[in-house]
Amino acid sequence: MPKLRAVLFDVYGTLIDIKTDEYRESAFEALSRFLEYRRVYIPPQELKELYFNQINLQLASSHEKFAEVDVRSVFASVLREHGGVTDRHLSIIITQLYRSLTRKYMSLYEDTFWTLNEFRKQYRLGIVSDAQRLFCKPEMRTLRLEQFFEVTVISSQYNFRKPDPRLFHIALTLLNVVPSEAAYIGNSHKTDCVGAKDAGFSVVGLIHQSEDEKRSYPPDCAPDFVADNLRGALQAITAYQAAQPG
Predict the structure, then answer these.
(1) Residue 103's beta-bridge partner residues?
(2) Separation CA 86–CA 88 (nearest Å)
(3) Residue 18 burial (CB count, 10 A)
């Protein structure tokens, strides 16, 4: 097997510890009040129902096996159809305001910075994440993560999500790296492990796993390693690299 040249990562639950409540009533109350200043009058409960109905409509109309929605376009449809507004800038503001109002906490795991510094001494780094671009990019910038990654592939830009192997292949193409030269680190067997394995990555590891999750991996698609944290993932990948000939 060739030696590794690149390591790619999931974001949320892997590099960033975050909790959100997307159904929070107070968020839609605040959004409704804000929209009044733009002459859009949609009561909070109606706004909430319209938002989630539009998400379901996007998913139902997609031809993708693993469909993804774009939250900005969801809000844009609601504003256009029920507020008579086609202002793209407003749909961006509402999307990011919604995220800020539904976010309970967000921080890096304690070993994220140190481990990424060690990884980038040896490998090219990239991101493949199920996320919204208008959420993920600013949050990575806020937490000073952007500096580490040459490539950031986010599902909302493509209308499909992991475990679709195409997301992984897009990142590898941008890095000019073949799958056998890449490793992937995530926190979900269903999306991260299955997707990276299907994409042909040489090494696929999971971190931040519960004991129940560890017992649930199917034998035909088990991760190559399971580590407690990113430091453990670095150790596992270092050991793999050292075992390769040449």
Answers:
(1) 20
(2) 6
(3) 15
Q: Specify burial of residue 62 (Cβ count, 10 A radius: 0-12, 13-18, 19+).
A: middle
pLDDT of the residue at 225: 97
**Residue of 213, 212, 207 lying closest to 228 (CA atoms):** 207
Task: Give me the domains of the chain, ranges plus CATH numbers.
Answer: 6-18+107-243 (3.40.50.1000), 20-104 (1.10.150)
In one-letter notation, the amino acid at residue 87 is: D
Instruction: Please answer whether residues 50 and 78 qualify as being in contact, where contact means their C-beta atoms are separated by less than 8 angstroms.
Output: yes
Helix (H, G, I), strand (E, B) or coil at 2: coil
**Tell me, what DSSP letter sits at residue 12?**
B
The residues pairing with 225 across neighbouring beta strands, listed in sequence order, are 205
What are the structure tokens assigned to 85, written together?
A: 């507004």
Q: Is residue 12 left, alpha or beta, with left meaning phi > 0 and alpha meaning psi from -120 to 50?
A: beta
Strand bridging mode 103-108 / 16-20: antiparallel
Beta carbons of 167 and 128 less than 8 angstroms apart: yes
Q: How many CB atoms lie within 10 A of CB 205?
A: 26
Element holding 207 (H helix, E strand): strand 203-207
Residue 18 pLDDT:
98
**CA distance linking residue 229 with residue 106, whole number of Å:** 17
Q: Taking the chain (246 residues) in consecutive chunks of 10 residues, what is each chunk's mean pLDDT?
A: 91 98 98 97 98 97 97 97 94 98 98 97 97 98 97 97 98 97 98 98 97 92 96 96 83
Relative orientation angle of helices 230-243 and 112-119, to the nearest 10 degrees? 20
pLDDT value, residue 246: 66
